[in-house]
Known about the structure:
The protein is about 15% helix and about 35% strand. By secondary structure, the protein is α/β, with parallel strands linked by helices.
Amino acid sequence: MSGTQLSITQVGRVIVPVSDQERALAFYTGVLGFEKRMDVPMGDADRWIEVAPKGQQTSIAIARPPQGEPVGVETGVSLSTSDADGDHAALKAAGVDVDDVMRWGDPVPPMFSFRDPDGNTLRIVETPTQ
């Protein structure tokens, strides 16, 4: 790839595979409080749906996976928060499948994993204070 100039400018979105887009949309907007950015037909019977935290550029596309591909995966998605303990308590109270808050001490911030209705694992990491 020597000499090739790419035009990548940002991480625009990540794709999370879901079996039921309506259920996923309700979870990501209703439970996580994300806003729906896009919901358009795609192909014969699919939809392209993107959600994101209010005011942020990077979005999550909740899409049905290609036939034969799984849902319920480790997404690698890490969401930032100012209050890991508060978010953990709120998600637990909402019935979300959450793991305990992990603490390794400074400089590693507190974090925990949770699963969406399809079992896709995401992580919430507290933003270190400066």
